[in-house]
Design goal:
Helices cover 74% and strands 0% of the residues. It has 107 residues and is mainly α. Helix 1 packs antiparallel against helix 4.
Length: 107
């Protein structure tokens, strides 16, 4: 199990690196529409800190996009992991509540 998780981590980072190398600097659909309608400042839309899926503090565009991809993958893994733990917690609480109800019914 641990080795398969490690393989998935390596694969995810490799995909982020490859995608970052070929990433386009052109804006995506949402950014393009916001710029065309000139609502950047009115809407409160701010793509920071990962402008165009890159890290603004790094000047080299390829390294910036690769790091942005890695950060994105880490965020997705963190969110997914948190949801799984929350699900397990809810299941555990439901079992405890059922056990407590059975105890009260026996009394």
């Amino acid at each position: 199990m641990k080795s398969s998780i490690a393989i998935l981590w390596v694969l995810a980072v490799a995909i982020a690196v490859c995608a970052g190398i070929f990433a386009s600097a052109d804006p995506d659909g949402l950014e393009k529409v916001i710029r065309l309608l000139k609502i950047e400042h009115r809407s409160g839309y701010s793509p920071e800190p990962l402008i165009s899926y890159a890290v603004g503090a790094i000047k080299h565009p390829t390294f910036s996009a690769v790091l942005g991809g890695i950060i994105g993958i880490l965020l997705i893994i963190f969110i997914f992991h948190s949801i799984l733990h929350l699900r397990h917690l809810i299941v555990l609480l439901a079992k405890l509540m059922r056990a407590e109800k059975r105890e009260n019914d026996v009394k």
